Amino acid sequence: MPALTGLLRRIQGWVRPRHPEPLPVRLERRRIYILPTGFGAFVAALLATMAIGALNYNNNPAFLLCLLLVGAALASLLWTQLQLSGMEVRAIQGEPVAAGLPMPLHVHVEAPPGRERRGLRVEIEGSSATLSLDDDAGGEATVALETVRRGWLTPPRLRISTSRPLGLARAWSWVWPQTRFLVYPAPEPVGPPLPSGGGDAAEPRLDPAGEELHHLRDWRSGDAPRTIAWKASARRDVLIVRELERPRGDDVTLAWGRLAGLDHEARIRRLARWVDEAERQALRYRLQLPGAQPIGPDRGAAHRHACLRALALLPEAG
Amino acid sequence: MARPGLPLDGPGRRAALLAASTCLLPLLLQLPMPLPVIIAGAAMTAALMATRGAAPGWLRTVLALAVFGVVVAQGGLHLGRDTACALLAGMLAIKPLELRTVRDARSLLGFALFAPFATFLLDQGPVSLVLGLLGAALVLAALLRLSEQESGLPAGDVRPLARVSAIMRLIAIGLPLALAAFWLFPRLATPLWGLPDLSTARPGLSDEMSPGDWIDLLADDSPALRASFRGPEPAPRDMYWRGPTLMHYDGRTWTASSWLRASPPAPVEHGATVWDYDLALEPTERNLLVALEMPLALPDGMHAAHEHTLTSERKLDRVTRWQLRSAPPVRFESDLPAAMRQLALQLPEGFNPRTRALARQWRAETTDDGALVDRALAWIGSDFAYTLTTPLAGRHAVDEFLFEQRAGFCEHFSSAFAILMREAGIPTRVVTGYTGGVRNRYGNYWIVRRMDAHAWNEVWLEGRGWVRVDPTAAVAPERIYDTLADRLGGGGAGETVLPIADLGDWVLRGWNDFVLGFDAARQQRMLQRVGLERMETGGLAALFALCAALALGWMAWWIARSEYERDPLLRAWHRLDRRYARRGLGRARHEPALAWAERVLAAHPGEHALLALTRRFVAARYAPASSDATLITALRAHRPAPETRQ
User: Fold this and answer.
1) What does pTM read for this prediction?
2) Model pLDDT, residue B494
3) Cβ separation B153–A130 shorter than 8 A
4) What's the gap in Å between the CA of A111 and the closest CA on chain B?
C-alpha cells in the first residue's frame, strides 16, 4: 500500500512541530492530537446502537442511560487532552554511551499545578516509559534511545501521550528537541593489552597499601600503629614511621600514530577500548590524536569523557 | 497504541467482575424463573474460575452451549425479545471465563453495558433504573482502573474513593449535554422498526366482560390514569371515565360489537359545562381508551366508534398523553335506528327464565320506561349487598344472582340490570370504564387506579337518548365514588390521608411526564410552553446543536477551570505579561518583576508607566493592601506604549 504510506508520511509532515525546536517546549492546544483508540471506536459503535434502539422504541430510560454514557465519554475525551495541555518539557538529557548501546534519555517535564497528570507515556522509537508529575517538582521519565554510530546523535521526535482516564481515546503531542547527544565510539570487544611506557619517566607514588619502603619520617598523630618502624624508633628515641610506596607502571600513552596497521574506525575502537582498560586499571593515560594537542596524562571520569569525546568526534575516514 | 497482550492485574479483574455482575443483576430480576437461578449459578462459577486463572477452551465451549440450551429450552426457538435478553444474560454470565488481558476485560465491560439497556426495554421500574445506573457507573470505574493499569500506575496509587469521585465528575460534567440531547434531540414520531411487546403493561379494561372476572383487576391499586384539569373540575360523582361499550350478550359474556366500530359516531348534544383536561394513560398493551363523558373533539390518533367507544391508533405500550375537552351529554342518539334498537334488545334464548319472567311482569304493570328503571333501581338498592366474594356462576347466572345470592359487585349488577331492561323492552347496554379518582395534594391532578374499574349501564329513553344508569351506585355508592380515602378510613374531598403516598405519586408523575412518557408530542408541548410554536425538525436540530455546543463549552470550562487563576490581581498581572510577550518582551520565568520592567524600559524608553505599575504590583504582592481594586483596574487598562508596538 504505497499510497497509504505516502499519505501517512504526508500527514507526518503536517504534524506539529514541523522542525526541531529549542527546549523548553510548552505543549499547547494546537499541538496536541487526539484520536479514539480501538476500544473507543467499539464503545462509540455500541453507544450509537443503543441510541438508535432507544430512539426507535422511544424507550426513555435506555436513551437517558445512553446519553449519560455519551456525556461521560466526551468529558473523558476533554480530560484526556487536558492532561497534556499546559505541560512544559524543560530539558532532555542524554547520558553518553558507546555506539550500539541504548542511551538513557532523561526527559524532565514541569506543569502548572492544579491538575493531576499521572501515567503519561513517553515514547521514542519503540522505547517507552511512564511519567507522573508532582505539582512542585515536575516529573522525569527515562527512555532508551538506540545508538548506531559514534559522534553526534540528533534525536528523533519524542511522543508524550496518555489514554487516561477511560482508555477511549489517546491524546499525544510530539516534541522535537533541537539538541544533540554524544555517542562514544564502540570499543573493540577483544584486543591486545595496553601498550606500556612511552610516557614520562616512571614516578613512584606514595601509597599506604604499598609494599616497598620509600623513606622513614617522624610520627604524626593519625598514623596507623602498624606503620611504626619499631627498631628504628628504638634507636632514635622518637617514633618513626615507614612511608611505603607501590611499584607502579609508567603513564600510558595511547597514540593514534602507533596503530598504523589498522583502518580508521578500527583504530578508534582500539583506542576507545584502551581508554576504558586504562581507566579500569586506574592508570594515568594520555591520548594522542592527529592534528590535536595530546590529552592528559590524567585519569578519572572527566578525563575519560574528554578522550572518548575526542575519539567520537574524529572525522570519518577519507 | 493499545497493548492487547497486557495481562490483567488483580484489582482490574475484581473491578471488571463487580461491574459486570451489577449490570447483570437487574436483567436477571426480569427473567422468568428458573432462568435467573441457573444463570446466576453459571455467573458465579465463571467468576470464581476467572479469579483462579483462565478456563480451558473446551470448558468455555461446553458452558456456552449449555447456557444456550437452557435458554432455548425455556423460551422456545423463536428469537423474540425475551429470548434475546435471556441469551444476553447467559453469555454475559460466562464471559468472565476468558478474562486474561486488559483487552478481554474491556470487551466484557462493553458487553456488560448492554445489560442495563436490555433491562430497560423489559422494565422501567425504580429497582431496574437504580441498579442499571449503578452498573453503568461501575463499568466506568472499572474502565478507569484498566486505563490506570495500562498507563503503568500501580493499583495503590489511586484511592477507590478518588476513582468514584472521578466517575461522578465525568458524569456530572457530561450531564448538561445529556439532558440537552434528551429533551431537544429530534424524536422519532413513528418507529423505524417494530416495537417489542412490552411486558410492563398491565391489562386494564377489555372489550368483553364476564361477571366475576374482574376480581384481580379490582385488587390492583396501580395507577390507570392521571388527569389534570384546566379550569373547572367535575365532582367525584361525575367522574365517569367511559371506556368500552358492550352490546352483545351470549348468556355468560358481554362483548363489544365489532361492526359498530366502523360506523360514524352517533350524534350527541352536549351540555354547557365543559371540562378541559390532560389525560395521561398508563400502558395497557391495548388500543382501548377512556375519557370523561363525552369528549367534544377527538385529538389526533384517537378514534370513536358509533357508541363513542374510544380507541387509539397504536397500542398503549407506554405512558400516553391526551389533551381532551368533555361535556356531559344532554341528548345522546335521541333517534335510535332500528338496527341499533334491535341490537340493544338482543337476548340469547334459554337463559335466566326467572329474570325474564320478572321483567315481563313489570312491563305488564307499567308502560313508562322511566318508572320501570326506577323500580329496578329501588329493588336493587333495598334488597342487595355489595361483595367481592361471589361463588362461581351456573348456567342461569343472573337468576342465581337476583334471586339467591343477592350480593355481588359492579359486573353482576350491570349485567343483571341490562338483562332485566332488555326483556322489558328498553334498549340497554353495559359500559365499562373507571369511576372516581383521588386528588394529589402536591401536584394539581387526579389519579385513578385500576381498582377503580367499574361497569354501569346506559338505557335508551324516548327524547333523551342514552342515559347513564348505575345500579351498583344504588347499593354501595361509597364503593364507587370514594376510592382509597374512605377505604383507609378518613380524609375529605377525595384526598388521601397519606401525604407520603401522595408525594411519591407526584414524583412518579413528574418522572412519567419528563422521562418515561417523553416523546415527540411532549417535546413539542414543552417547546410551546417556552414560547417556541411549531418547531420544525430543522429548527429543533439547530436548537439542539446550540444547546449541545453550550453544554460542550461548559464541559471544557469546567474541566480546565483548575488552570484558571483565582487571584484577580495575579490574573490581571498575567494578562499584562502576555500583552508584552506578544511583542517579544515577555518576562522570563526566572526574571523578577522589577528587573523585567527595567529591562523593558531600557529597550523602550516610553515604558515608564510599566515600571511604575510594576512597582505598585510588587508592593501589593508583598504587603497586601485594601486598594487592590484600583491596581487591578490599572493593570487591566495598561497597554504597551505605542512606540513599543513597532
Assistant:
1) 0.64
2) 44
3) yes
4) 10
